[in-house]
Write a structure and sequence with these properties.
The complex is a heterodimer. Chain A is of the alpha+beta class. Chain A is built from 14 helices and 19 strands. Chain A folds into three domains: about 130 residues, Histidine kinase-like ATPase, C-terminal domain (Heat Shock Protein 90); about 120 residues, Aminopeptidase; about 220 residues, no CATH class. Classes of the chains: A alpha+beta, B alpha/beta.
């Protein structure tokens, strides 16, 4: 459950916020010690904000509590007196010899969190990001010794009768075991090796799925939809069928069920991030009516895949495949001039009626501020900036965000621009000048609207290794590769 | 709901905090402590001791004349923070911490 607090920056509110922080962290799955560390980190930031950012003035603080399967992030924003933490570093020698404890609060915050980031947004204030990763039991450590026994297990291999039921929190450990026994250490989504993370995600309804069991109750397969947090769509991911039970149509039966469950839950669409190290997932998606809309390069840093009939040590890229579950689709108001042809081709794949969008943006002269949200994926070494509107100050705001994440040396940065934005052409122009290249359409991805994604890749990409299946995904790849090579030519 | 309890005599203040040892608690203790030269804080209900509280205690113990500080039931995070601030060797924990 995500939360958002808006508070007056006064000392008495600090205790209430730390109490809330502690309870929220425990509810989201942190153990009590880790929750107390996070509460202390929040206490340190808020106390300093009250003492130094606003002093005697009235000011306000906004706090966002965000959850993913692997970590929680608390974002604190305020617009008090300017401040630069690098100018206030802590020295224990000075503390002991002179009683000078300057910088002690930030030292504490760094020690109590797994990641701490300070972002200066200039006239839009300051932002503190505190991240704590879940330290839960890793199934790989627990069942390693049993793997050989499992591989010899033959009691279920002859069975053809399977029971498909919605996955519950009690299935969490079996799901983690399935992943490990099917993929060893190589499954892309690390969270699935941690039963506690799976349990919490199902409990809080961040995902829903199907588990397949044999007559004797043994787990044979699992497939889930992970719900997006800022739009009514979901990702079909986390798919696994135990090797003994493959080639029996289980994946198809599970996906059919999932699509049915997604419709019942009111989702507007489903997307899949199909790996490009092979075309298997892309072909499965196509069979179920998914259409390719984007190619996202360098989705995670380098890793090796095994157990998938292929090995690859390059950076992982994915094709975004989308299946609309709606009967009518709002047509984007503005198709950017630079990408008119490819976007027209992408939209032409969908055979459902398009209707004119009712959500036209205000004229640019009325809209100065751009609403940009930054999400940092520390484990994936990437960041996503979502522009919910493109104001006349887009370039300055975006530049500030890009500068603020420079020190993280991210492999990739993505920017999602709303396709109902009047100023989208100039935003694209500016992003291209700043080494961003095409990625594609992210349908209904934020606020139930279509976005154009651009991407900046800080890694060497071997496009020979990127395999695509559909003609559209091949077209998208060609454009991405062309723009990537153009950028490389301009590099000193 | 617990409330912070104070017990005092002419030279000593004993406090049982109802919550975390934060700046609010520091303000309350400062007011009650006045010129007393001995402070005992029971941290049974505290999840953490923040840097403002540690600085407050450090200054009490290094003032002239020093105030004697005694902490009961300190949470684990207190020791982690003391270590992070490089004060773990500076503070005489054998005397300060009551088992």
């Amino acid at each position: 459950m995500e939360a958002h607090l808006y508070l007056e920056a006064k000392l008495p509110m600090v205790g209430s916020v730390t109490d809330f922080t502690y309870k929220w962290c425990v509810n989201m799955g942190l153990d009590e010690n880790e929750a107390a560390r996070m509460a202390l980190a929040v206490d340190e930031i808020l106390t300093d904000v009250v003492l130094y950012a606003f002093k005697e003035e009235t000011g306000y603080v906004e706090i966002w509590y965000q959850y993913t399967f692997s970590e929680i992030e608390i974002i604190i924003q305020e617009n008090g007196e300017p401040f630069e933490p690098e100018c206030h570093s802590y020295s224990s020698e000075q503390a002991i010899s002179e009683g000078n404890f300057e910088g002690a609060s930030f030292e504490c915050v760094r020690k109590m969190t797994d990641h701490f980031l300070f972002l200066n947004h200039g006239m839009h204030g300051k932002e503190y990001r505190l991240v704590k990763q879940f330290d839960s039991l890793d199934i790989r450590e627990r069942i390693e010794a049993q793997v050989d026994d499992y591989k010899n297990e033959t009691d279920l291999a002859e069975e053809n009768y399977y029971l498909l039921t919605p996955a519950t929190t009690e299935d969490a450990e079996d799901i983690a075991k399935l992943i490990y026994r099917s993929y060893g250490y190589t499954y892309l989504k690390d969270d699935l090796y941690f039963p506690k993370r799976i349990e919490m995600a199902i409990r809080h309804e961040y995902k829903f799925g199907i588990i397949v069991r044999t007559m004797s109750g043994g787990p044979a397969g699992y497939f889930a939809v992970v719900k997006s947090t800022d739009s009514r769509i979901g990702e079909v991911g986390e798919a696994v069928v135990s090797p003994q039970h493959r080639n029996r149509g289980l994946m198809k039966r599970m996906l059919n069920k999932l699509i049915e469950m997604s419709r019942r839950r009111g989702l507007l669409g489903l997307f899949g991030e199909a790996l490009t190290v092979h075309t298997y997932s892309q072909k499965v998606n196509e069979k179920f009516g998914f259409k390719s809309t984007a190619m996202v390069i360098a989705k995670t840093p380098k890793r090796t895949f095994k157990g998938m009939d292929t090995e690859n040590t390059d950076i992982i890229s994915v094709v975004i495949d989308f299946l609309p579950l709606i009967r009518q689709w709002e047509r984007p108001v503005f198709i950017p001039e630079n990408y008119r042809d490819i976007l027209t081709d992408i939209y032409a794949q969908f055979k459902i009626p398009f209707i004119p969008s009712a959500r036209k943006q205000k004229p640019a002269k009325e809209l100065k501020d751009s609403e940009l949200n930054l999400k940092i994926f520390y484990e994936k070494s990437s960041a996503l900036i979502v522009a919910n509107n493109i104001g006349s100050a887009f370039e300055a705001s975006c530049n500030r965000l890009l500068r603020s994440v420079e020190e993280l040396n991210l492999t990739s940065v993505y920017v999602d621009l709303p396709l109902n934005g009047l100023r989208i052409d100039s935003a694209i122009q500016w992003l291209r000048e700043n080494r961003f290249i095409f990625s594609g359409v992210m349908p209904l991805f934020h606020r139930e609207s279509d976005y154009l994604r651009l991407q900046r890749i800080e890694a060497e990409i071997d496009f020979e290794k990127i395999q695509t299946h559909s003609s559209i995904s091949q077209k998208i790849k060609k454009l991405v590769e062309y723009e990537y090579n153009e950028i490389q030519k301009k590099q000193p | 709901m617990n409330t912070t309890k104070f017990k005092k005599n002419s030279h000593k203040l004993e406090v049982t905090l109802s919550g975390d040892f934060n700046l609010n608690a520091v303000s309350m203790i400062t007011e009650e402590l006045a010129d007393r030269k001995e402070l005992s804080v029971d941290l049974t209900h505290s999840r953490f001791v923040n840097t403002k509280a540690i600085i407050f205690l450090h200054k009490l113990m290094t003032s002239n004349p020093p105030t004697k500080v005694n902490l009961k039931n300190a949470p684990r995070i207190f020791f982690e923070l003391l270590n992070a601030l490089g004060l773990h060797n500076e503070w005489n924990l054998n005397e300060i911490i009551e088992p």
